[in-house]
Amino acid sequence: MAFHEMRDQPASNDATQRAPWWQTGVIYQIYPRSFQDSNGDGVGDLRGIAQRLPHLIELGVDALWLSPIFTSPMADFGYDIFDYTDIDPLFGTLADFDALIETAHRLGLKVILDLVPNHTSDQHPWFKESRASRQSPKRNWYIWRDPSPGGGPPNNWLSDFGGSAWAYDRQTGQYYYHAFLAAQPDLNWRSPEVRAAIYDAMRFWLRRGVDGFRVDVIWHVVKDDQFRDNPANPNFQAGNPAHHAVVPLYTADRPEVHDVIAEMRRVVDEFSSRVLIGEIYLPVERLVAYYGRDLGGVHLPFNFSLLGTRWHARTIAKLIDEYEAALPAGGWPNWVLGNHDRPRVASRVGAEQARVAAMLLLTLRGTPTIYYGDEIGMQQVAVPPDRIRDPIENTLPGLGRDGCRTPMQWDGTANAGFSPAEPWLPLSSTFREINLAGERDDDTSLYQLVRRLIRLRRSSPALLSGSYQPLLASGDLLLYARAWRRDRLLIALNLGSEPTAVTFPSHTLAGRLLVSSFGDRDDEPVLGTIHLRGDEGAVIDLSDQTILP
Ligand code: GLC
Q1: Whether pLDDT at 426 is above 60
Q2: Which of 270, 322, 441, 443 is the catalytic position?
């Protein structure tokens, strides 16, 4: 059977029929270096990804987002771009990209690229031209300032990757600004030429068929035009990352950023059915501003609140409530459990709770994003000092991101089926126990749970477009309902390791258990009381009862 024939049809109802794909779909993030190596150099590539698309189809996701694949010196593994409109030879060629997108589309998968507009590589021809002289026509494409009157950096702005955000250029006697590595100079988004150049790069990929962009550090793009010092952070404590010593008041989340994003959105809207997603780490009340005036900003400002939360029922219930309450009218929610910058969820919450976390992600209201490997419970890998690759481990010891970027654990053979060669980052020592091949054969595995939950989402109007109703957060128990007309589901999550139960008057709770996170209670009747084992989550169908609790 062809893969596309294996896909379940999404639930059909008037709401989901009208909804764009990025609202009803599940997004899957691929870190290309670590997904599949096809040419034996120990680094993943585009042909490798194309070979592994059947996995995405079997899992049931709708879209893949690729971290950067563009030409790059790889100082920050592709987040330092040398050419916005070409593929790095490490990953393949433009022809490989065209082939990948063609196959993905044939299989019904959307393809989202990473757009990195805030900064380029210091090797980018634009920067080389800009730094050549103060009179360079591209001088203004980057952010150049004279030293402060007493000498030294122009102000107190700090790099997220450690130290001053200003690097001195001896030849022209000025400093340039870099929010991240010195090898990643920030573009000057106040320049109309810079904007036009990046919009052209966007059109290049949109014309090639990409279905949208995840925009890197979008809230950083505009900086204060008066270059005011950032205020000291009164909550700074010893041991915090050094750049938290100041509040980034003048370096990020500037009001003018919304005009830039509205322009980017108009570029995306020149093409039909594309999506714009923003990487934004901000408190919820600031985050939701990125939907833009009249929803003309990003379609999905990434909601990272689950990445850093305490794994506690009341805390999570509160963050869901606050997020739901803050959303603008018509703003579509989204949830993220893991990415290439944060420790793996299975290590943050523990292997047992990873199942509960998956159930949470896939039953909340809004678009879920799954980080590759989280569907099989890959854990954070302790990378030995001599194998460390992430440059920030040097400046921010302990915050290096290699541990969540290790090769996908496909099977128990040499190098976990990722590559015939030694991989660029070490494999998890647990890959023989935790791998896709083993979990495919085990009906009770995390992988099979994730598949079932995705399938359930696709067939459930309540999960795809229904309301979210908080019911209870007490002790380790988190309970909520999702409802679309007569399709009603109750989700009960035990966030602790002890068994728990909750009782409702029996006439208010009568249903049928659809999915237990352990995969073993299908169709069990539920009457009055929900019993959960330690670390268990359950989705209960309440469609046949007339009274919701
Ligand atoms: C984003 C990326 C991260 C990168 C940084 C600088 O936060 O997700 O990986 O290092 O931007 O480009």
Answers
A1: yes
A2: 270
Give bridge partners of residue 513 from the DSSP assignment: 540
Catalytic residue among 37, 96, 122, 216: 216
Q: How confident is the model at residue 483 (pLDDT cuts 50, 70, 90)?
A: very high
| H/E element, 440 | helix 436-440
Cα separation values, 51 from 38, 100, 375, 416, 420, Å: 8, 9, 18, 15, 15
Split at pLDDT 50, 70, 90, the class of 4 is very low
- pTM (2 d.p.): 0.96
Q: Output the pLDDT for position 549.
A: 46
Residue 513, classed as helix, strand or coil, is: strand
The atom of ligand 1 lying closest to the CA of 80 is: 12
CA of 348 to the centre of ligand 1 (A): 20
Nearest residue by C-alpha to atom 9 in ligand 1? 341
The per-residue pLDDT for range 435-476, each reduced to its tens digit, is 999 999 999 999 999 999 999 999 999 999 999 999 999 999
How far apart (Å, rounded) are the C-alpha atoms in residues 442 and 429? 21
CA distance 264 to 251: 20
Report which ligand 1 atom has the smallest distance to the Cα of 116.
12
- Encoding tokens for residue 15? 């709401």
Task: Specify the DSSP element, H or E, that contains 144.
Answer: strand 144-145
Nearest CA to 348 out of 338, 333, 359, 362 is that of 338
Measured in Å, residue 217 CA sits from the centre of ligand 1 at 7
Residue 216 designated active-site = yes
Q: Is the CB of 535 under 6 A from ligand 1?
A: no
Task: Give backbone dihedrals phi and psi of 495, rounded to 5 degrees, phi first.
Answer: -85, 10
Residue 270 appears among annotated catalytic residues: yes
Closest ligand 1 atom number to CA of residue 79? 12
State phi, psi for 86 to the nearest 5 degrees: -145, 165
> How many Cα atoms within 13 Å fall on the side-chain side of residue 47?
13
